Amino acid sequence: MHYRHVADINQTYDLVCLSPHLDDAALSCAGTLIMARQAGMRTLVVTVCTAVPPESQTYSALAVEFHAEWGLDHSEAVTVRHGEDRKAMAIMGVDSVWLDFDDAIYRMPNDYYSRETLFADPHPADQLRAQLTPVLRAIAARVHAPRWLAPAGVGMHVDHLNVLAAAEDVLPKDALALYEEVPYALTPEYLATRRALIQPVLHTTAMGPALAAKIAAVQSYDSQMAALFGDPATVGQQLTDYHRAIGAGAPAERWYTRP
Predict the structure, then answer these.
(1) Does the pLDDT value for residue 55 go beyond 90?
(2) What is the sign, positive or negative, of the torsion defined by CA atoms of 24, 11, 141, 14?
(3) Residue 250 main-chain phi, psi, to 5 deg
(4) Which of 6, 89, 170, 191 has the largest CB neighbor count within 10 A?
(5) Predicted local distance difference test score (pLDDT) of residue 24
(6) CA 188: distance to chain centroid?
(7) Do residues 166 and 136 lie in contact, with contact meaning Cβ atoms separated by under 8 Å?
(8) For residue 112, with 0-12 CB atoms within 10 Å meaning exposed, 13-18 middle and 19 or more buried, which class applies?
(9) Could you give the dihedral angle defined by the CA atoms of residues 95, 97, 103 and 106, in that order, rounded to the nearest 10 degrees?
(10) CATH assignment of the domain containing 141
């Protein structure tokens, strides 16, 4: 089920995943979500930055660069991704809701104008954390979920850091696990940098036969494959190698808790 609005959520959930963008949940924790669903758990993906920019939007050079990498016109850059996300959620078998916040490259084009500004601490004027916090409180009051997944901030994308901060503002520490973000986690330097900052306790969750379904869910985001993985033909192998390395041969996903 896809909810149009938070107010439409009419049931409790066992597991809620906070996804900054239209792909992060599938990329980073689809295996965990699929295994939870197969175990009978009610699962919900809450995607934060899903708003369609207005036709009058002024795009930064960075947004123009990204749209070109995705092979999408400005007018379809988000709507095509909506369709990809629906397909991925169906493969994972999870419910979903979009929060309709702007992606950083649309939200503050004059401040997030380069990769250096986008993959860094959020700009002091960025209001996403403050705006998201009451929405997460409202969702938490509706779903009564005992377990939540949020991005760990590997890669230092400002939207991921804002979502993590808002989650930690709202949720009890013992209810929150932080997922290791793909594709950033495929780069050892990004992992080392983030772990040095937050000093997490590392955990793994076996994926079992869910790896194939995860790969299919990730590949639903066709517009993103080249930008995220280089050669789209190697996506399955890159994910397989990464997850088997985590599980010492048996596919697994890695997540963190705060000490």
Answers:
(1) no
(2) negative
(3) -100, 125
(4) 89
(5) 98
(6) 19
(7) yes
(8) buried
(9) 130
(10) 3.40.50.10320
| pLDDT for the residue numbered 15 | 98
Q: How many CB atoms lie within 10 A of CB 67?
A: 19
Mean pLDDT of 72-97: 97
Phi, psi of 25 (to 5 degrees): -60, -45
Residue 64 has pLDDT above 90, yes or no: yes
Distance from C-alpha of 5 to C-alpha of 231, rounded to nearest angstrom = 36
**What stretches of the chain show up as alpha helix (H) in DSSP?**
24-38, 61-70, 79-92, 104-107, 115-118, 128-143, 158-170, 188-198, 210-219, 225-229, 235-246
Q: Which amino acid is at 147?
A: R
By percentage, how much of the chain surpasses pLDDT 90? Answer: 97
Is pLDDT at 36 greater than 90 in this prediction? yes
Residue that the structure tokens 């306790």 belong to: 201
Q: Is 232 exposed, middle or buried (0-12, 13-18, 19+ CB in 10 A)?
A: middle
Report the Cα 145 to chain-centroid distance in Å: 18
Domain with 48 in it: 2-257
pLDDT at 56 over 90: no
234/238 Cα distance (integer angstroms): 6
